[in-house]
Amino acid sequence: MQFLNPLALVGLAAALxxxxxxxxxxxxxxxxxFSNLAFLRQLHQSRMxxxxxRQWLVLLLRMLALVCLALAFARPALQQxxxxxxxxxxxxxxxxxxxxxxxxxxPPGGRTFDHLRRRADEVLSLLDGSHDEVYLVPVPLQAxxxxxxxxxxxxxxxxxxxxxxxxxxxxxxALRQARSVLDARRPQHRELYLFTDLARPGWDEASWATxxxxxxxxxxxxxxxxxxxxxxxVHLADWLAAVGQPLMLEAVVGxxxxxxxxxxxxxxxxxxxxxxxxxxxxxxxxVPVRVExxxxxxxxxxxxxxxxxxxxxxxxxxxxxxTLHVPEEISVVIAGADVRDTYYARRALNAAASGDATLxxxxxxxxxxxxxxxxxxxxxxxxxxxxPTSQLARVAREFAAGGGGVLIVPGTGADAARLxxxxxxxxxxxxxxTVSGRPGGTALVHLDTARTTSHLFEGLLRDHDDSPAxxxxxxxxxxxxxxVLARFDDGQPALxxxxxxxxHVLLWSTPxxxxxxxxxxxxxxxPLMQRMVRYLAQPTAHGQAYTVGDRAWxxxxxxxxxxxxxxxxxxxxxxxxxxxxxxxxxxxKVPDLNEAGIWRLRAGGDVIDAFAVNIxxxxxxxxxxxxxxxxxxxxxxxxxxxxGESLRESVNAARFGRELWRELLxxxxxxxxxxxxxxxxxxxxxxxxxA
Length: 691
Known about the structure:
It contains twelve helices and 34 strands. By secondary structure, it is an alpha/beta fold. About 35% of the residues are buried. Helix 6 packs across helix 9.
């Protein structure tokens, strides 16, 4: 037994007041002359014993009622490990505060995060500032974001400064951090509080080892029928972008929650700050919708844009940003042992250049290949290569390491072992194996239209009659991290891609020779060569997808390592960034991408790079997690407190057991009623008969 308000026990002295009044009003009886009636003496003697007994009973009932009232105000409760008159035990409270972007949801009753912050303030008011300690653990975690131990007042100030960001929920990592803090505070009384909007994302990675001595409170802020529209990922083959040429763009939009009936909404496309198109679509809860746009870039260079859905109660996920690089010129160098080896590649690309003014084509022999000859090139094609020289292999490696794109086509008499060892080993994680089929024979395989899903072949394999025939091919042994862009119908790779941190390399498995295949004669050859060149010319870091919370490593061509480079966030905040050596090159590091939007790198006041950062769209799902799932993740001892449920009562019950003040008040009332009945009840003693 413990009294949570022991000072109220002073009120027990009030129980002596009725006794003092009774004793002070007791006087000696006065004699009054009266007629000598014997029956009055008999009546006095027979009833005084009953009156005195009733008076003492009434006095006792009054004193007990006052004792019960005093005890009720002292708040008696059961608690192990403390004295009879001790206060609350010193407590370590760990508060996990969800500040993911889903807590920006703003229903008519106010923003979800503000409600969670008010509930956290209620918990802090239940802590003793002189004995208890608090740890604040934001969800998701950030470097150095765990604060504690601090007082409740300091925690209240930090809560006032905390705001929801644009990161997704990281509940699993936050719970692991909380566990390490609480385990270090044994044997002190410990409590864990999780303030959350109950949105489903993050709960699949949550786990907690049940500890009967550690109460866990999930303080929720969620409402029924939460509806949220979102703009999802944008897909575009930006390597095909050219001024004035239509470029297909596909966006994913959707909706979580709300009525099962589809609702109409408008999706807008913005490029360079100007709205260029819009589409009207129907959204149904839980069903993503693909929306297609066609945009023709108006200029060369770096373009930025986003798609946007109509505003709703959560605007953080209503936009998806992207960047688009429209090259002014793509310089291609085709190298071969002689003019015959480069013939088909030259003819195809020259034909493509007649309709694509961006392309600039030149050809050289292998023995002319040098660092200087490819210094200004974007793409290097090694056509029908058979035995690489050390000079050729070195130039190819340096070219790819500097950010260039390389297309490797083996020759008819290729020395597979030397190619693998001296060239491919440093450029692409694949190797040439044996030859399948017979050059000049009958058709062995065709391209598999079902498995060939790369944008390089999009629209080129629809007509089966125009599908090229392959009479002989090199088998490619690909490692696990290799990307296979096309396959033959026997399952063997036809075109593979290897990416390094700087450049990327394509390896075609068949020589450009009519004895091996009729690819150079087919209608797909010219557009396929154009697409491969444009694909290889695209900087590898340009289209890299970043999510809020990531860090970026950017390659800045032509920028001196000592130059002052600033990164500008979407909100206009600027920070000087430094270059760091990564492998054989230097990259500029942007350590904390904490905002969604377009980030820019500046040198000398000019924008030299731009890239898009987007939110984690998984967090857009506001569907509440069920109480059964919470119990499964956090254990049966967890207490879920919904909006409107009393924090004080639940916390005190967990700390001290069920308080007894209600029962004591009821008992005091019952004693007073009994006292009233005893005091007013008529005497049952018989009256004496007169003589």
